[in-house]
Structure prediction request, 200 residues.
Amino acid sequence: MRNTVRELRTRRGLSQGDLATAMGVSRQTINSIETGRYLPSLPLAIALSRFFGTTVEEVFDVDR
Amino acid sequence: MSIDEGSAHGTRSWKRWITPGAAVLGGLVYLVSGWSGGDRTFAFGGLAVMLALAVALVLLARRSETVAGLLDGKDERINHIDGEATGIAGRTLMAAVVIGFVVEIAQGQDGHPYDMLAMIAGVAYVLALVVLRIRR
Prediction:
């Protein structure tokens, strides 16, 4: 599963800690999501997408 | 669907006191148990160890996101890790119980108390399976 969380975050000038605070998770969790080591729950994926003003499909994409 | 809007690290939450509180309660149980049984070394030693654990958890939570996440239960990744680690610990314990039971039987014993421990684990597993299956 690929995602664009890191690109979306850095484009807005946010640190992992900033995004973690906004999402109510730890900085480590944001790092794990960005590196693809952790697949977030659907509620967290939707919250991330809404935070960046985009859709889940545009943030997360299945490797084919 | 709800995403906690507070920081997993900074939000004050009563949940983060459950585990340290349980450690203190366990220490008090050890104190009463050891005192009742006449083993004051165990009574005070057990209380001291559990109090030290409670203090260590509270202090570590200020430095470690992982410990903070384990205590307040707000980080879904840490919760998943906690669940998986608990499962691994449970399976390891079950394996130890079964091995202990088999060794006891091989030595001509009746298998106590391993047989009862295995029965408790088996019943707990089936009950958990049924309840979780109904809820999901």
